[in-house]
User: Fold these one by one.
Assistant:
Number 1:
Amino acid sequence: MKIFLISIFVTLLLATCHGNILFNEHGSTNQIFPLRVKIGSGGHYIQEVSCSSWRLGVEAHNVINWKTIPIECEKYVGNYLLGDQYRADSKVVNREAYFYVKSLNLSGDGKDIWVFDIDETTLSNLPYYAKHGFGVNPFDETLFNEWVDLGAAPALPESQKLYNKLLNLGIKIAFLTGRPLKQRDITAKNLKKAGYHTWEKLILKDTTIYHGKTAVTYKSTERKKLEEEGYKIIGNIGDQWSDILGTNIGNRTFKLPDPIYYIA
Ligand SMILES: *[C@@H]1O[C@H](CO)[C@@H](O)[C@H](O)[C@H]1NC(C)=O
Ligand SMILES: *[C@@H]1O[C@H](CO)[C@@H](O)[C@H](O)[C@H]1NC(C)=O
Ligand SMILES: [Mg+2]
């Protein structure tokens, strides 16, 4: 037992030292070759470097149309989502959105509306993805719908703060989601349970009208309808580029982090 514990201790110590060496390299005590390929002992690529570059590529919409995350990035993505960084990144986006909206001179005519996507924007499916490889596995509609039908998705805390602040400023809320119409009741229930108590619109996808259409087309069309009803989309926030590309996107758009899946 003692030997076992000691060997665990030594392993942890080695792991920590290894981490510190990496950290020092990043902390650029060595400024001469800042762009050199980072390699670990034995000349192997250090996975974290390529996974963080991959994530940046995804967020900047350089890496597109991917079906699953790189298999070697499962741990990296898991650590990102369950650690502090995901929350911190979400906070920056939501705070910027708030600073923007505070700077506006709103008419106060009750027609100012803010569009929120739902999954990974308003509600988090992290409990589901934590059990299914953080995006390593291809999307499984049956399993995912079983999770949705539980109505147990928690709120994303930083998005919820923005939601509350917008309501306090008298701005209406539209939820615009790719979830199908048949999930309307459970989605409404889940939103309320998670603390989103009110909204002007809850728009789900009519899969007969939008069958075979992209999310960009669906969301653009629905936003256009909102504007035709007289709403002014002052802001639009989502975790997918397809939430904020297309037409009628709103006066400003905000992209939340999502390294787990890509929807065109
Ligand atoms: C905001 O709108 C009011 C009323 O239209 C106007 O008097 C005021 O100058 C505006 N302020 C800014 C900063 O645009
Ligand atoms: C939004 O954009 C439209 C069109 O450019 C502009 O007329 C309007 O003043 C903008 N609204 C806000 C709140 O910035
Ligand atoms: Mg989403």
Number 2:
Amino acid sequence: MRYPTLVLGACAALAIALPAAVVHTKLVKAEPGIDATVTEAPKQVRLWWSDRTEAALTGATLLKEDRSPVGVIKMAETDDSLSTAGAIPVALAPGKYIVMWKTGSRDGHVVRGSYSFTYTPAAKP
Ligand SMILES: [Cu+2]
């Protein structure tokens, strides 16, 4: 019997032992929301994960749409074991922002990703 030739990294090998969804932590929800438009300047970023994460391995950087840095968001644990949150260190001007995040997966790998949101103040009457 012949087996298909596969090139397996450590990650893929683990994915065979465990369902792939279990291996790597995913971002499931965020506040400000993923691709959301908010009318009040957000003061913190809160991220909800598919698995418990180590706050020490979790962090985020806020960027402007042109990818210039706005500030580092220091993530800490919350009362919800599946979420972390951190303060936005500056008052945000209206515009589109990118949250670049990283966290640790159960298999020890660092997972990174990003999402964007837009801050558009409500029109004054
Ligand atoms: Cu992995």
Number 3:
Amino acid sequence: MHLLSTVFSLFIFVYLSGILNCYDIWNDVPCFKQFTPEECKPENVELLTVDDYDKCGPAALEKNARNYFLGASGRRLTYKDNKDAFSRIKIVPKVLRDVSRNQINSSTLGIEVDFPIGASPVALQRLAHPDGELATVKGLSNFKTIMILSNFASTLIEDVGKAAEGTLLQLWMQVYLYKDRRVTLDIVRRAERSGFKAFVTTVDAPVHAFITCNARAKSFSLNASVVNVDASVVGNGDVSDLSLTFEDITWLKSQTKLPIIVKGILNGNDAKRAILAGASAIMVSNHGGRQMDGTLATIDALPKVVAAVNKLYPRRQVFLDGGVRSGTDVYKALARGARMVFVGRPTIWGLALGGSEGVRKMMTLLRNDFNQTMLIAGASKPSEIKEDTLLPALNKLLGIIDV
Ligand SMILES: *[C@@H]1O[C@H](CO)[C@@H](O)[C@H](O)[C@H]1NC(C)=O
Ligand SMILES: *[C@@H]1O[C@H](CO)[C@@H](O)[C@H](O)[C@H]1NC(C)=O
Ligand SMILES: *[C@@H]1O[C@H](CO)[C@@H](O)[C@H](O)[C@H]1NC(C)=O
């Protein structure tokens, strides 16, 4: 009887903790296991790498926020593979290259950046820190880089614009193509007036994919809301117009003088069509594994997209987000032809662990690690990061992949 009741209460405990945080029972990435708040106390762990932020960021959040940001669709294959795919690529350094005048700065779409790493759009940042997007701006404001504000931000476009004014940080605005185009245009005009320098339109979400873990957390509710679009427009995850085609990119292009970056592309043909429709640049992205589960990791999709874009307009740029957690990841993406990379979840973990200071530290770690990677690989500036320092070699890959 005693034993039975122990077994029963154990069962209840496991069952309940499963409901409370399904990532504890679906611990599908052993080396990225979710650390507990206890394990993440400053006396137990020093945040020395972006992987440390990945491990301890979630522990700093309450369960709904944690599940929201860790969320990925389906079996979470793409979420995992974005990171794993970087590990499958090897860097072969070039030695004795005089790297004493090493520079890691770059430029894109008329913007000079201190390093080719920016912040991806992530919704509802007030879930990660009370100051939300404003803390992210503050954390990045001493860097010449780019932050992409989410269409589903929890801070007004105008307030984010004001916070970045006079700082080194530049802003781009993510915008969806809504059924009601007036909603899209409202965002476009407000961002233009607030000093944003480009639009990033996400095209991989005709509907928002089902996030199992969030659905299982029965009491799932978010303690922050979307403030730049009417919640009734956003509706039940029905974000954009199901009838969208490449002509709608041309429409968006016709509505603004600012460049349009099309985000969410994973193959060469789509990249080509987006450019022909008016895109100034392409962002290779799979929505951080939150849309099509089981698709290509972004670093694996990149070569084909770069080859297709280069064939058409050699000067058009390609960006990447998804799975970037170290300087070597940044290096690999640049070697495969990305002009810049963007990080999403790491920014959120920085916010969760230390507000603006956490964001600044996370970005500093990534920058320093990229600098070190370049020095050891024998590259003195980003344009010297060449594909021939990676294995498997691109010509082999492109032989298999039909560009
Ligand atoms: C990097 O900075 C140096 C020094 O300010 C500048 O001369 C160079 O043009 C910059 N590189 C790029 C790619 O913008
Ligand atoms: C929700 O937000 C309010 C106001 O910012 C705060 O006082 C409260 O503690 C938050 N609740 C949770 C569960 O985070
Ligand atoms: C890169 O590292 C070198 C060597 O430590 C250092 O001199 C340089 O200032 C670093 N560059 C940046 C941008 O941090």
Number 4:
Amino acid sequence: MNTLALYRDGKRIATLKPSGKPGECFYLGSAPACDVVVADAAFGLADRQLRLTPGGSLWWAEELTGDGSLESDGRRAARLPIAGRVALSVRGFAFEAECGTAAARVGRRDLARDWLYERALFRLSQEIGGAETVADAELERRVVDFLDETIRECPPQLADLPEQTLAELRAETVEDMLRLGPLEPLIADDSITEIMVIDYRRIYVERAGKLTLTERHFRDPEHLIRVIERIVTPIGRRIDESSPLVDARLADGSRVNAVIPPITPDGACLTIRKFGKSLFTLDKLISIGSLTLPMARFIEASVTLRKNIVVSGGTGSGKTSLLNAISLCIGGGERIVTIEDSLELKLQQDHVVRMEARPANAEGKGAVPIRALVANSLRMRPDRIVVGECRGGEALDMLQAMNTGHDGSLTTVHANSPRDTVARLETLCLMAGMDLPLSAIRAQIVSAVDLIVQTARLSDGSRKVTAVTEVLGLDDRGQPRLRDLFVFRQSGVDPKTRKVLGEHVVVGRPTFLGDFALRGVPLDTAIFDGVPDEP
Ligand SMILES: Nc1ncnc2c1ncn2[C@@H]1O[C@H](COP(=O)(O)OP(=O)(O)O)[C@@H](O)[C@H]1O
Ligand SMILES: [Mg+2]
């Protein structure tokens, strides 16, 4: 573990041992609760004067009061790296800090990297100045030229570093200055499905459903903001104090959300939902246990029967992926219109018209909401309408479309159970502001929706179809009647691996079972043999 030892007048005054917990930090100041207490009135340190944070291979010292007194080897900054042994002083309180030996070795690389970056940034700002805009390619050429030149000159900061390290530093500096910096390798890593930047120091990733903290970090809060700007500006969005929330997309289609202070007081926050390169097909989903072969075949045949299907689930439960997999079953001879907030679906059919909603511009104009697209799609002679997600009044238009001849349509809804899906659809329809009575809305819903496919992210990070449910109609009291056809029965959790145990079971017979044979849609209906109508 990378410990930090503090010395004063050659005597060790403290040893800080990080436990490896994310976000861990230590304080130096006059308050008794600090990890290093400096109560001597001569220095007049604040309660919490310095924050000492382990940052992978080195440590960071950060001055918290903004008094500008933090200094190391004649260099003043609000935040300074500690690699190897360095002399530090704050408000005249002088001490030495030393991190572990392994850290000192790697620390030199980090210092060289910082040095190179700052030099290049300085040079670039001198060359380019303020107003002049320079094309990206030109910018990159200048940076690369400057780095090559600097490395060739071999200044003391880079002396003795192996060729390989220099090449890495050069590439990292280009990434930091012109691309997405520490995010680049995470974006390139296909095993990562989500990237979550909590603040400039902490970047979490999701791999196979599990969250882990990475070793990567931005240089400082401004670096993070610059990277966010680099993402949003090319696609005509902007982020600043007056519009601190922004949705954007990376060139590869990954979805980005950024929020900056004052909304997030701890610094800018960035979330990237990676655009999975691998396509989820039903076969793929079967192979990873998200559903079974009979379930997949049943859903597929129901699509062919032109059943209206709603995929429901929580955020990140795999709704969009499953919708995509289900949509792949639509026959090639049909005209498909897809409508999304942000392009995610990847249909493979030839005849697909894609539409994407647009938020308002900075002046609050030009918004094209999903709802307008659904209404418009009806005039485009669609055979199937696929709406990425219903999250507002468009639900009503969608249901009306399903009820008026555009059957076989598909969408997703944010809900935690099939019953909740119906309730959620009611709420969304009310958002359309058409002043319809609830009973009329409910009647629309149960007549439009044939099947609800429920997804969930389980405690072990896996995504499963937890229910396939038929919507039958309304009962005497006007309540929706639902029938589960398949459910996932969880039997427990493996005490060692924490993996969820359980199985998918057939629990009910669809009312339209006879239609498959009638309409010549191949389906082995034997799986429903002996299954009662109601579970
Ligand atoms: N069945 C699955 N098994 C494992 N990972 C999945 C599965 N379905 C989706 N994922 C992954 O989970 C994340 C969220 O999926 P997504 O379909 O976008 O969810 P939602 O639309 O519900 O928010 C994506 O990174 C995706 O690659
Ligand atoms: Mg989604």
